[in-house]
Amino acid sequence: MPSYRIHRLKDHLRQPFRNAPHVSGTAGVKPRDYAAGERVEAKTPYAAYFELRGSPNPIEPGDLLESDSGELRIYKYIGFEEAQWVLPEPKQAVVSSEAAAIPATVE
């Protein structure tokens, strides 16, 4: 049976998520906004939601489910939608002016 890792939206971001307008398409989410949580075994994200609905830690709007294959689903008020991690681009090393002024030789 498939399993999902739950990523919980940090508490201070729940109200802004609740007030944000709904947008269609793949949601971009930042890893820093989430805390990794427990795993749940379920056939679908909806089955995971219903399994945890009556528990002390239900899936709440803004939480993510990550499948074993890395597929992300974000829970919104209308159901689960696709999501993907938005990672910062690595900083490029600053090239000194001397290194930039030396032309490359072609042999």
Walkthrough of the structure:
It is a single chain. The chain has one domain. A six-stranded mixed β-sheet has the order 2-6-5-4-1-3, with helices on one face. A hairpin with a 2-residue loop joins strand 5 and strand 6. The chain is built from three helices and six strands. With about 110 residues, it is an alpha+beta fold.
Which structural traits does this protein have?
single chain, 107 residues, alpha+beta, six-stranded mixed beta sheet, 18% helix, 32% strand
Number of helices: 3
Strand tally, please?
Answer: 6
| Low-confidence residue ranges | none
Mean of pLDDT: 88
Q: Give the class from helix and strand content and strand pairing.
A: alpha+beta
Largest sheet: 6 strands, mixed
**Portion in beta strands:** 25-35%
Number of domains: 1
Quaternary structure of the protein: single chain
Termini separation (Å)? 59 Å
Please state the overall shape, judged from the principal axes of the Cα atoms.
elongated
Q: Please compute the radius of gyration using only Cα atoms.
A: 20 Å
Q: What is the N-to-C succession of helices and strands?
A: EHEEHEEEH
Helix amount: 10-25%
Q: Main sheet: which strands, in order across?
A: 2-6-5-4-1-3
